[in-house]
Design a protein that fits this description.
Layout lengths: L1 E4 L9 H4 L7 H8 L4 E5 L5 H12 L5 E6 L10 H7 L3 H4 L5 H12 L6 H22 L2 E6 L6 H11 L7 E8 L17 E4 L5 H10 L7 H11 L3 H13 L14 H11 L4 H12 L5 H6 L5 H10 L3 E3 L6 E3 L2 H10 L2 H14 L3 H11 L5 H16 L3 H13 L9 H15 L2 H12 L5 H14 L10 H9 L3 H17 L4 H18 L2 H18 L4 H9 L5 H4 L5 H11 L3 H18 L2 H17 L3 H18 L3 H15 L2 H18 L2 H18 L2 H18 L10 H10 L3 H18 L2 H17 L3 H18 L2 H14 L8 H12 L2 H13 L7 H5 L7 H11 L4 H8 L3 H15 L4 H13 L1
Parallel strand pairs: 1-3, 2-5, 2-6, 3-4, 4-5
Antiparallel strand pairs: 7-8
Length: about 950
């Protein structure tokens, strides 16, 4: 690659670009690959230069001349500077190819000799630039990379635009970046070819900002802090990184309720405009900066009598943007508000908070401002803050409640009642509810460093365990310490034994241990009068009994649902409502399951219960998937994944469900990636239950992808894991039909039948009608492989009818597909058409593609099964099927599509067939078929 100009970059991918930009820039890549030009635009700090360098490194190949320039504001007054950067090093290569007048004009402009100007040498200079680019392009493609077009000197911009508009089919591409506000980029297109693609770079999401901070080494930031960085930066990557750097360099983190520290590098972006404000206008803006929803009326109530004129002055300077529909006051960018607050003296900040502590109409906001205006301990302020935290909790804002609770603790005297640590722990529990587990864990660890009261210590240990999520193995040393602190107190012991129930399930991988601990916790809680822990323990006991197929499960569910119920437990993700949902969906009651989980989701959202919301969105997705609404399920599963990754809660379960929905209604490769990611995360956390669930998703995706051997490996592991866990109810994971089908595809019909017999016994005992119908579908495939064609067809028809009545749309379609593969094709509409119709109704696109492939691969008039298999008695079932299809003239690819196996499997199977029949090639199989027909 020939690199010219003042900006030289190594040919490598820029890791920052990968974070949140690859999808956005895919169109730019396609445009460049087609030979077109691209203009990147967006506000300052949004990542245009990073994207520009990355694209340039990708497309600046060895056979391409790359001309670069990067303008700056301080040099924008120097004429022809950008032109010199672009052409100064290559002019000698093309000098002799230019007419004399053009050579003279160009040399004068590039060297400064002769005082060339556009007015004097206009046409000759314009033509010289165009000719120079054409001459370079004659030697090979040219890429012009220009950053910060807004600072390009006017003369260079005019010359570049003149040439760009006249390049035509000349292999010269422009890759440019320009700073813009809003969508105003049209005038910059004048310096680009007519067909240039304009790509606007927008704000990053919170998850993308988090990834960017981690990539730059600002790791370990609490999610609440990342949320504040995202809000303050407005999703601008440069601003976010500067805020992250300031936090990393600041030994004292901001106190609860206070804005983030704003580094000098960012303050400088707005302070020059702030300095143009009058003193009174600046004070008015400071009050607005601390208000939650500042309005002109609020500013008046806070004593800012000239708020209209002072905010108008700020708006003229670009600091404020007044909402057109009302008197609301909004900063042009959140960073302006943060910089204003950071620059203000401490006494001015307290004065602004004090003004709003009486002016604000909302009691929560008034209490927060009172706390930030007060120094030292103050029982009255602490009490008001505690009341405000309770109000926020009732409103479904646990994150706000946590922040207010910490403020209350800070202003609570050491001998107060309740004490400061008790209020801190309540704040930690609110943080858990809000999904801010990092904050909760930090609060609990802080309390444990000094707390002596057993109740406070056990409560803190419970927060530490809750904050660990599924990685309970990482806090294994906590349980004996918590038991020791609990002593003989039944209420405290109930809390610990409830967590030991989860440990038994997740760490020990033993449902029986989990059930026993949960029952003990429920008994202790009832003795202590702790209804909340009793209800949660009963719900856990009922869940384990349901999955174990235990006969006491219905009775335990009734106990868990018995009055009195507690509202926050009723919609808890581990509460009786969730247990009842699981019972309903395992009992084939899909409409009731849907209405139940919808009600739970609404209440969890109303209460701001983040983990419960993630959980119930996932359960709703599962319900829609079982019902055959694959498109809806896919949307919900993706929403659950976004919520999980944003909050750091439930990532493994959400990845499992997303994998299952992708395999059914989206992209099979993505399904495999998500499933394997879930298995890896579960293995890292030592979560046996979700290792099993993740492998179930992987095995299903492998089956859909045609990898029968891989599906068998994965699902055999699931079988072994669930046997070890003590799970006997086949409705829990519903993987048995997939494993049996995969076993049939690789010729292991005996193992498939044994698996089906065991699963059928449990399903009949528990009354799992949906599972029984799926087992019938799989057993029909076993019978077909054994040559029992008519019995297989009859069993499939019966299974399809039962699945349709139960509302399992996707399983109904799969039964129709299996039926189509057993029935001979006739001219006109076929069974494949019916299967395709059912899959399309479900929006099960991967399955639709399978049906279409099978229909193409299936001959219209196949050899009768008996004739096809004559003489093949010594072969295994899969070997007979492959050999029979070869006799029909099918290619290896067609056989793979027909039998839903990989081409590699077909080849391996044929090798075994050749060996057993004593032949050498597929031609010998065809000859064998012809000889049999001749007889």
């Amino acid at each position: 690659m020939t690199v010219r100009g003042d900006l030289r970059e190594p040919a490598r991918r820029h890791p920052d670009l990968v974070i949140g930009r690859d999808e956005l820039l895919s169109a730019a890549r396609e445009q460049l690959a087609r030979g077109g030009s691209v203009l990147l635009h967006g506000p300052a700090g949004i990542g245009k230069s990073t994207a520009l360098r990355a694209l340039a490194s990708e497309y600046g190949t060895a056979d391409r001349t790359v001309l670069r320039c990067s303008a700056t504001e301080s040099e924008s007054h120097l004429p022809f500077l950008a032109l010199a950067d672009l052409l100064g090093l290559v002019v000698d290569e093309v000098y002799d190819k230019l007419p004399a007048a053009q050579r003279t004009a160009l040399e004068s402009a590039l060297t400064g000799r002769g005082e060339s100007t556009l007015q004097r040498d206009g046409l000759a200079l314009r033509l010289a630039v165009l000719s120079a680019l054409r001459a370079l392009a004659a030697q090979g493609p040219v890429l012009v990379v220009a950053d910060d077009l807004q600072w390009l000197d006017p003369a260079s911009a005019e010359l570049l635009g003149f040439a760009a508009r006249r390049l035509g089919d000349t292999p010269v591409q422009l890759l440019c970046a320009v700073r813009t506000e809003g969508q105003e980029y049209d005038r910059h297109l004048s310096a680009s070819p007519p067909d240039t693609l304009a790509v606007r770079l927008g704000a990053l999401s919170r998850a993308q900002v988090s990834s960017l901070l981690d990539h730059r080494g600002y790791t370990g930031l609490p999610r609440s802090t990342v949320r504040d960085i995202h809000r303050t930066s407005g999703g601008n990557p440069f601003f976010a990184l500067e805020l992250g750097r300031a936090l990393a360099e600041n030994p004292t983190p901001p106190r609860p309720g206070e804005p983030l520290p704003v580094p000098t590098s960012l303050r400088a972006l707005v302070l020059n405009r702030l300095d143009m404000l009058s003193v009174e206008a600046r004070r008015t803006l400071l009050v607005a900066s601390v208000g939650a929803r500042p309005t002109l009326a609020l500013l008046h109530a806070a004593g800012r009598e000239n708020a209209e004129a002072e905010t108008a002055q700020a708006a003229e300077l670009g600091l404020l943007a007044t909402e057109p529909e009302g008197p609301a006051v909004r900063f042009a960018h959140p960073l302006i508000s943060a910089a204003l607050y950071a620059e203000a003296p401490a006494q001015d900040r307290r004065a602004a908070h004090a003004a709003l502590s009486t002016a604000a109409s909302d009691p929560i906001e008034r209490a927060r401002h009172l706390a930030l205006a007060t120094t030292g301990t103050d029982p009255e302020a602490a009490a008001r803050l505690a009341e405000a935290a309770a109000t926020a909790r009732d409103r479904g804002a646990p994150s706000v409640a946590a922040s207010l609770g910490l403020l209350a603790a800070r202003h609570t005297p050491a001998d107060g009642e309740p004490g400061p640590d008790e209020r801190r722990l309540e704040a930690a529990e609110d943080a858990i509810t809000a999904g801010e587990v990092d904050l909760a864990r930090d609060i609990a660890r802080d309390v444990l460093t000094r707390a002596a009261e057993p109740a406070d210590r056990v409560r803190a240990w419970m927060v530490v365990i809750e904050a660990a999520g599924q990685a309970l193995g990482e806090v294994d040393t906590v349980y004996p310490q918590a038991l020791a602190d609990a002593g003989d107190d039944p209420g405290l012991l109930a809390l610990v034994h409830y967590q030991l129930a989860w440990r038994g399930l997740v760490v020990e991988g033993d449902f029986a241990i989990g059930r026993e601990e949960a029952a003990h916790a429920a008994e202790l809680a009832a003795r202590a009068g702790d209804r909340r822990t009793e209800l949660l323990a009963l719900a856990f006991q009922a869940t384990t009994e349901t999955l174990m197929g235990h006969p006491d499960a219905p009775a335990t569910i009734k106990r868990a649902l018995k009055e009195p119920q507690l509202p926050d437990v009723a919609c808890h993700h581990n509460g009786a409502g969730a247990t009842r949902y699981r019972w309903l969906i395992m009992s084939d009651q899909l409409p009731e399951a849907r209405s139940t989980v919808n009600a739970l989701l609404r209440e969890a959202r109303r209460r701001g219960m983040v983990e419960s919301e993630v959980h119930f969105v996932r359960l709703l997705a599962e319900t829609e998937l079982r019902s055959g609404h694959c498109g809806r399920a896919l949307d919900l599963a993706r929403e659950s994944m976004r919520l999980a990754r944003d909050s750091g809660i439930g990532e493994v379960p959400s990845a499992v469900l997303a994998s299952l929905t992708e395999a059914s209604g989206g992209d099979v490769e993505r399904a495999l990636t998500l499933g394997r990611e879930a298995v890896e995360l579960a293995e890292r956390a030592g979560d046996q239950m979700y290792i099993s669930r993740g492998l179930t998703a992987v095995g299903h995706a492998q089956l859909v992808a045609g990898d029968a051997e891989g599906a068998v490996r994965s699902l055999r592991r699931v079988r072994d894991l669930e046997n070890g866990l003590g799970i006997t109810d086949p409705a829990r994971g519903r993987w048995h039909g997939d494993l049996a089908e995969a076993l049939v595809r690789i010729g292991e019909t005996d193992e498939a039948q044994q698996l089906l017999d065991v699963a059928r016994e449990h399903a009949q005992r528990l009354g799992r009608e949906g599972v029984l119908a799926v087992l019938d579908r799989a057993e029909a495939l076993v019978r077909a492989a054994r040559g029992e064609h008519e019995a297989a067809v009859a069993q499939l028809r019966s299974a399809q009818d039962r699945l349709a009545k139960l509302g399992y749309g996707l399983e109904e379609a799969r039964a129709a597909f299996a039926l189509a593969s057993l029935r001979p094709r006739r001219p006109g509409p076929s069974s494949y058409d019916e299967a395709a119709r059912l899959f399309r109704r479900c929006r099960a696109l991967p399955w639709v593609r399978q049906v279409e492939a099978a229909a193409v691969a299936s001959p219209v008039e196949p050899i009768a099964p008996a004739a096809a298999s004559e003489g093949l008695e010594g072969l295994a079932a899969m070997e007979r099927q492959v050999a029979a299809l070869v006799m029909e003239g099918a290619t290896n690819r067609e056989i793979a599509a027909r039998l839903f196996i990989s081409v590699k499997t077909v080849e391996a199977t044929l090798t075994r067939v050749y060996r057993k029949l004593g032949i050498r090639s597929r031609v010998d199989i065809v000859r064998l078929a012809a000889a049999r027909r001749a007889k």
